[in-house]
Amino acid sequence: MNFIVMITIFIYLNIMFGVNSGKMQPIIIVHGGAGDIPESRINGKLEGVKEAVRVGYKILSSGGSALDSVEAAVVSMENDEYFNAGYGSVLNVRGEVEMEASIMCGKNLDVGAVTLIRDFKHPISIAHKVLTDSPHSLLGGEGAKIFALDKGFETVPPESLISENAKHALESSKNEFGRTEIGIKGDVGTVGAVAIDSNGHIAVATSTGGMSGKAVGRIGDTPQIGSGTYADDQVGGVSTTGHGESILKCCVAHSIIKYMGGGKDASTATTLAIQEMTKRLNNTAGAITLSKSGDVGVYFSSNRMAWAYVKNNKIYYGIDHDQTLVTDLNEK
Ligand code: ASP
């Protein structure tokens, strides 16, 4: 009798408050950018995405929040010259770094985003501060710098963020802006992370240097909520990468969320939204998705996209179409 009463109370709490004493199995998925990635960059990117999920998963498995996990995973890739974010960001037409980032909390739909960041190492950490410490959602340029300095972030010389690869990519991309396939030889990719923590909360973070040879002051999809990033505990989370002007016209991240809200699974929703954008605008993109129940979606219409996720102590990862490699979480 007592047992039946307990079960009834448990089911009631679950329905009313989403109380789940069994706790959610935490998951993190990351991407390292969609594009025409040359062979010479494949290994570096795969190592980078695997390292990012290890860093993010460590936080989740010790009870940390999805927000802290996605920030840490993105910071790891912002430090890595194999990715187009933080150090190693691609350059605008004047040869300068201008970075952007966004982060979203699926519990309460709080957001933080920054754009036109020139002299800070970790745009995603400033975006996270905008989320927690500002009444605003998106800060850009001088205003973002004033905010960051006020919150104790330290500037770095802008040249210290420029890699040899980014200089080379700018040379190659001159006269090619507007091409249909972003990411020509030597180019590198935007980064993103989506996580669910043990309390079932979802967070998403995305960070980029934009596109090689972009105009000064160009703002892409990454800092725009609903285009580059979206998280909603009631549905799931998405981070996108690819041709920014196309992604933002189709609000790709939110389109995937809408498809999932309408009953599609994470993989179908991701595939549909990216294929629609590609068909309509003839440009390529990719996305990573988690549904609120932990289903994974990975899809890209570009030649390649590096991705990795951790589930049940294994890392699943890949970069080419129809490729899924597996390794143990602790194996380096
Ligand atoms: N979406 C980014 C942008 O257009 C580029 C990328 O994902 O690589 O700024």
From TrEMBL:
GO cellular component, one term: cytoplasm
Residues in coiled coil: none
Catalytic activity: L-asparagine + H2O = L-aspartate + NH4(+); Cleavage of a beta-linked Asp residue from the N-terminus of a polypeptide
Residues at the site labelled Cleavage: G189, T190
Annotated residues for binding of substrate: R218, I219, G220, D221, T241, G242, H243, G244
Any GO MF annotation of the entry: beta-aspartyl-peptidase activity
Keywords: Autocatalytic cleavage, Hydrolase, Protease, Signal
Biological-process GO terms, alphabetical: L-asparagine catabolic process via L-aspartate; proteolysis
Gene3D superfamilies assigned to the protein according to its UniProt record, in alphabetical order: (Glycosyl)asparaginase (3.60.20.30)
Listed InterPro entries: ASRGL1_meta, Ntn_hydrolases_N, Peptidase_T2
Keyword Signal attributed: yes
Residue positions of the active site: T190
Signal sequence extent: 1-21
Pfam families the UniProt entry points to: Asparaginase_2
PANTHER family xref list: ISOASPARTYL PEPTIDASE_L-ASPARAGINASE (PTHR10188:SF41), L-ASPARAGINASE (PTHR10188)
Function of the protein: Has both L-asparaginase and beta-aspartyl peptidase activity. Does not have aspartylglucosaminidase activity and is inactive toward GlcNAc-L-Asn. Likewise, has no activity toward glutamine.
Complex formation: Heterodimer of an alpha and beta chain produced by autocleavage.
Family of the protein in this entry: Belongs to the Ntn-hydrolase family.
Name of protein: Isoaspartyl peptidase/L-asparaginase GA20639
